[in-house]
Amino acid sequence: GVRRVIRLEQNYRSHGNILDAANALIRHNRGRLGKNLWTAEQAGEPIRLFQAATDREEAAFIVEEVSALRREGVVLSDIAVVYRSNAQSRVLEHALFSAGLPYRVYGGMRFFERQEIKHALAYLRLVANPEDDTALLRVINFPARGIGARSLEQLQEAARQAGVSLWQAAVRRSGGGAKKGIDAFVQLIEAQREVCAGLPLSEQIEHMLAASGLVAHYQGEKEGADRVENLNELANAAAAFVADSEDGSLTAFLTHAALEAGEHQAATGTDALQLMTVHAAKGLEFHTV
């Protein structure tokens, strides 16, 4: 049959200025069939461009803009902040949290609620204090070390009978099918505690991410690239924390992370700024982006 190219050029969502900018940008792409978007709407407001030197400066600018719009009477839920990848939400979330601006991550989790970040923080909590039973249970078999539910039950029972922490029970443990896995876990945490003692905070995190096997585990997953990007962002978060704090210790950072994680995103029905990836924004409309 005859191949025909049908161009869908009329846009019903955006004002003229936005389409003109989009047309101008995409003109540089190679291998296009070419089309020219147009709208029956007016030109609308001019697009304003702000070029920040750092991601933190960018976040500060966004907080200022959002606060100004709010004073003008624009409701937060009519404003969207759109970014390329999930890991980029971390700096924004921190700035919004610090400014007391309620926000909601559309179609995703807040940074400190993401599974891979919770796993990483559990390892770090064990480096800071191996007696943390909740952290130990979260990661003793993640990534998998051949420690099954039955072995964990036995470990918990041994700890209960001896009146000690799970860590103490693991250190004392002998026999049982999972001995190898539990021993490997104990050695891993002990080695991390030794290595991390002399390292700056962000290096402690980078070292732990590699040694724990978390990065390798997620690199092996089909959708793992996003998770690895988030894990790397945790090290950036630590570097920023050290730059801002008088106490740049691991314990202080963990307290800070718990504080941000605990400030749950705005409840349903309350007015909140919308955060999302470009991908998640498809088909949605907002007063201000």
Radius of gyration: 24 Å
- Shape from CA axes? elongated
The total of helices stands at 12
Q: Name the average pLDDT.
A: 91
**Terminal Cα span:** 43 Å
What does this structure look like?
- This protein starts with 15 loop residues before the first helix and ends in a 12-residue tail after the last strand.
- A three-stranded parallel sheet has the order 1-3-2, covered by helices on one side.
- It has 289 residues and is mostly helical.
- Helix content is 52%, strand content 4%.
- Helix 4 (115-128) packs antiparallel against helix 12 (250-262).
Layout of strands and helices, then pairs:
Elements: H1 16-26, H2 55-71, E1 80-83, H3 89-99, E2 103-105, H4 115-128, H5 133-139, H6 149-162, H7 166-172, H8 179-196, H9 201-212, H10 214-219, H11 224-244, H12 250-262, E3 273-277
Parallel strand pairs: 1-3, 2-3
Helix pairs in contact: 2-3, 4-5, 4-8, 4-12, 6-7, 8-9, 9-11
